[in-house]
Amino acid sequence: MPRTSAAAKEQRRAQIMLAALRCFARTGFYATTMDDVAAEAGVSKGTPYLYFGSKAELYRALYEWWSCGLSERVDSAIEALPEEARQSPRRTLLAVLTAIGEHVAEEPDACRVLLEAMSQAQHLPGIAEATAASQAQTLAGLEGLLEAGVSAGDWRLTGSAALHARLLLGVIYGLMTQWHLEPGSFSWPDAAAGVVGQLSPNEGGNSEASDLMRESPGIGR
Q1: For the segment 97-149, what is each residue's pLDDT rounded down to a tens digit?
Q2: Which helix (H) or strand (E) holds 157?
Q3: CA–CA dist 164, 205 (Å, integer)
Q4: What is the CATH number of the domain that holds 152?
Q5: Domain holding 16: CATH number?
Q6: How many domains, in total, are found in the chain?
Q7: Does residue 219 have a pLDDT over 70?
Q8: Of 103, 148, 154, 203, which shows the fewest CB atoms inside 10 Å?
Q9: CA angle centred on 40, ends 58 and 123, rounded to 5°
Q10: Residue 105 CB neighbour total at 10 angstroms
C-alpha cells in the first residue's frame, strides 16, 4: 500500500482546517462536531482524527493559524513603510491598525472563530493558554510602540503605556466585533486613522496627527 507523501498530508490537513473554519464560523464551537468537519471536508469520519486529536486541538490550530497570519501581515506592513515612516511611531501604529483591518476584512470566518475563542477561552482546553500568550505578545508590542511615541514626542499619555496598550487592544477587539456584526459598515483605514488621531500630541510636537486625519479619505469630509 503506497505511503501518503508529506505534501499530500499537509494538503489534507489544510483541507480539514478550512472545512472546520467554515463549520465553526457557521455554527460555533459547541454545536460543531468532528463528523460535521469530516462531511464538510468530504472525507471519512475518522480522517480528521488522523491530524487532530480532538475538536479543541483543531480549534486551537485555527486560532494559531489566524494569529500567525495576522503577525505576518503586520510585519509586512511595517517593512513596506519608507524608512522615514518606520522611524515614526505614529505612522507605524497606523500601519499596524490598517493591517489588522485588512486581515479581518479578508478573513471574516477566521475573525468569527477568533472572537469566539476569546470569549470562550477559559472553558476550552488548551485555548486559554494560546489566547493568553497571544494577548501578552500583542500587549507588549503595543506598549513598546506607545512608549516609543512618548519618547519621540508623537503623543502624551495620561497613565502608563501598559494601561493604554490594554485600552488600544480593547478598541481593536471592539472594531472587530462591529465588523463581524455588520461587515462593511465602516472603513478600516478611516477607523485606524481615527484611533491614531485620538492620541494627543505633545505640546510643541509635530503635526502628524492632523496630517494623518486629513490624508484618510473618509475623515473630516
Answers
A1: 999 999 999 988 888 888 888 787 777 767 888 888 888 999 999 999 999 99
A2: none
A3: 20
A4: 1.10.357.10
A5: 1.10.10.60
A6: 2
A7: no
A8: 203
A9: 30
A10: 14
Structural domain containing residue 38: 1-53
CA distances from residue 96 to 126, 207, 218 in whole angstroms, order as listed: 28, 20, 19
Q: What is the pLDDT of residue 148?
A: 96
Helices (H), 80-187: 83-86, 89-106, 108-120, 127-152, 161-181
Q: What is the pTM of this model?
A: 0.82
Same domain, 124 and 191: yes
Q: Kindly give the interhelix angle for 6-31 and 34-41, rounded to the nearest 10 degrees.
A: 130
Contact 130, 111 (CB under 8 A): no
Inter-residue contact 40 to 22 (CB < 8 Å): yes
CA atoms of 98 and 70, how far apart (whole Å): 11
In the 8-state DSSP scheme, what is residue 170? Answer: H
Distance, in Å, from the CA atom of 20 to the CA atom of 37, rounded to the nearest integer, reads 5
Task: Determine the Cα–Cα distance for residues 154 and 200; give it in Å rounded to an integer.
Answer: 8
**171 φ/ψ angles, rounded to the nearest 5 degrees:** -65, -40
Whether the pLDDT of residue 204 is over 80: the answer is: no
